[in-house]
Specification:
This protein has helices spanning 40-49, 109-118; strands at 2-6, 20-23, 29-31, 53-60, 69-72, 79-81, 85-91, 98-100, 122-129, 139-143, 149-151, 155-161. The chain has 162 residues and is mainly beta. The longest helix has 10 residues, at 40-49. The protein is rod-shaped and about 120 Å long.
């Protein structure tokens, strides 16, 4: 687009005279910084200082520290206008492994603890209940139930006989 001309468009001039034009080069282009590995706070400040816009922030599981930029939608080094938002993905920590809760009902407390540990779980709250037919420290109930999927290291509450 022509942003300026000399002489003006309404001026009368001699035939063959030069007309000088100033043409816009478009919006200013800014080189996108590398945000990967920076904290979310640092990424926001960096973009603001460069007069760029932060777009959508999504959280994803990652081995990188929590609140660290894992990915950016606009590649580092690319030249863009100030109006283009830069979407980023931020770490919310490692993905928790899901494990199946084993059935420990009917087992001795020692055996139940061993099976839970093998599954990557731990004993949670324990309560006791009287039983005339089972030996003491036999598991009568559990929560969560056998077959449920839970995060590794989840405590499993047990009810044992006394």
């Amino acid at each position: 687009r022509v942003t300026y001309q000399n002489p003006n468009g309404s001026d009368i001039v001699r035939e063959g005279r030069n007309v000088y034009l100033t043409v816009s080069g478009g919006m200013a282009q800014i080189q996108v910084p590398n945000l990967r590995g920076r904290s979310l706070r640092d990424a926001k400040i960096t973009l603001e200082r460069m007069e760029l816009r932060l777009g959508t922030v999504s959280y994803v599981p990652s081995d990188m520290p929590v609140e660290t930029v894992v990915m950016q939608a606009v590649a580092a080094g690319r030249r863009i206008s100030k109006a283009v938002p830069i979407d980023i993905s931020v770490s919310n920590g490692p993905l928790q492994a899901q494990v199946d809760v084993p059935n420990v009902v009917g087992l001795s407390l020692d055996e139940a603890q061993r099976r839970l540990a093998e599954a990557g779980l731990r004993v949670g709250a324990m309560s006791s209940k009287a039983s005339k037919t089972l030996v003491p420290n036999t598991v009568l109930g559990q929560s969560p139930q056998a077959g449920d999927k839970v995060d590794a290291n989840t405590p499993i509450d047990l009810v044992v006989s006394h």
